[in-house]
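This part of the workshop introduces the protein records we will be handling. A record pairs a protein's sequence with a compact description of its fold. Comparing a sequence with its tokens is the quickest way to learn the format. To make this concrete, we reproduce a full record directly below:
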Amino acid sequence: SANTGGDPYAIPLPGAESKAASPQVAKSDPATTSTSRDTATHVASRESTSSIVAWQKVAGSGQGRDIQYTQIGTGSRDLLVIGSLHGDVSDAMLICDQLSEHLTLNAAGLTDARITIVRDANPDASNLRSATTANGVDLNRNFASSDWRKVAMLNATQQDDSLLSGPRAASEPETQALQSLIERIGPERVLLLECTSPIGSIQYSPSAEQRAMQLSRTSGWRQVQMADSSRSGSLLSYAGDDRGIPTLVLNLPRSKTVAEGWEASRQTLLAALDVTVSSEATSASTEPVASTPR
């Protein structure tokens, strides 16, 4: 997965059209169909089937799968949402899809911010139903943060080939793509979604402490803690600590169906984004509008 010969994962700089008008679509409820968490659900989560959201390729994975993103809204405040770094957390990606559809359906009222959403940052791992990339690397140990260090797997027997952190910082194309995206759009807030517990919890960077406490009060999620400083090479370290971007990891409560999970997490997700969305969705139905991340 090494990057050789230039930067094939670089996100193209946009022109003046980067803040193109948001797609206008007919109003519907993105969570009207309940989908059970099973093998079929996991397979469906690898690639969004929504005809509402304008998903586009932002980069390629180590095995050549698309890493997809969408941008919603026309405001000047840039926000970034990442639907899990691990391929065994399909629930987070599916709820991320629900969030994307909800925001797209109400895009006409989203004028104070522009939200960039990466639904699956680790598609090779999703294909394998694994927490790590095809190379056995945990993306949340691979960011080029100031505290990055080599971290071996528990059962490692060879030096570099068995490093959970990867052989060097940002060794994986998936990590490179996310770092490039963060540098180019300069988000004022980053949300990472996980879904590994029956109850909701929040981790946060120091600059996001006030927002995390507010979310805890409004959501009832009582497990709130500052990021673990011993976890080197994490997204929280890279974006939150090194760059001072308020960064939140929202561990969404697991539910029996996607619809139930979306309903349980919707208000907390919208509050975490802190955006103003009009209660009236657009009435005209058109094809999704493509845009380029700036």
